[in-house]
Specification:
Elements lengths: L8 E6 L10 E6 L2 H12 L3 E5 L17 E12 L5 E17 L6 E6 L20 H13 L6 H5 L3 H11 L4 H9 L3 H13 L13
Parallel strand pairs: 1-3
Antiparallel strand pairs: 1-6, 2-5, 3-4, 4-5, 5-6
Helix pairs in contact: 2-6, 4-6, 5-6
């Protein structure tokens, strides 16, 4: 996508503890009626939606939760409709965005004015000064954390991906907290994200009972 083709507003899909990064593709199961409407509308236009995390939800704001300021815009690259009127989609992350203001509409889902000023680099194919060997120690610590939490990761498949796909896939799939995942999304580049993953991992200290310092 070219900078000149970026939209001024998009529909957003708030999904807790779930992040999408540029250049990664994720599957989504869409079943809530308002988000089925959102997918229908998106497919009729540019196939773009914004993924963003809501902040901690309480009973007062479940329908209109406060959102983090940074999300990622993605394009629907595959769509299947099920017999029970759900959508199974694949969404490819394109570029991160900042929320500006909510747009008042009669639609059931939410739309926001956005800008991409801080994230134009997401559109470029950048060669990061990283080697796979740089990730080996992080992988070791992450493997331990994933195993302790009962997560199963196809590590061999990850090793065959590009570094940005690998780092971003691990960040998305990690058993980190909502806030920690948001920090990873907002880091400027892959090198910073790799360092931040390592920093977060140092806070997960395993004791003899396999507990962590963060619940």
């Amino acid at each position: 996508m070219k900078k000149k083709d970026l939209p001024k507003k998009i529909a957003v899909f708030p999904l807790s503890n779930f992040i999408v990064f540029p250049k990664t593709t994720v599957p989504l199961n869409i079943f809530e009626p308002r988000y089925v409407d959102m997918i229908n509308d998106s497919m009729k236009s540019d196939k773009l939606i914004g993924m963003i995390q809501p902040k901690l939800i309480n009973k007062e704001n479940q329908d209109l939760p406060e959102l983090y300021s940074v999300g990622c815009m993605g394009k629907i690259v595959n769509l299947q409709k099920t017999d029970d009127e759900r959508y199974l989609i694949e969404l490819k992350g394109l570029i991160r965005f900042n929320l500006i203001s909510e747009v008042v509409t009669k639609k059931k889902y939410r739309e926001f004015e956005i800008n991409f000023d801080k994230f134009y680099d997401d559109l470029e194919d950048q060669k990061e000064d990283l080697k796979f060997s740089d990730l080996e120690l992080i992988f070791k610590d992450l493997k331990n954390l994933f195993q302790k939490r009962g997560f199963i990761i196809n590590w061999k498949a990850l090793e065959n991906q590009s570094l940005d796909e690998t780092i971003n896939a691990l960040a998305m799939a990690s058993p980190f907290t909502l806030e920690e995942k948001q920090v990873l999304l907002e880091t400027k580049n892959l090198n910073s994200r790799k360092t931040k993953i390592a920093d977060i991992l140092t806070t997960y200290t395993f004791d003899q009972y396999n507990n962590t310092t963060i619940q």
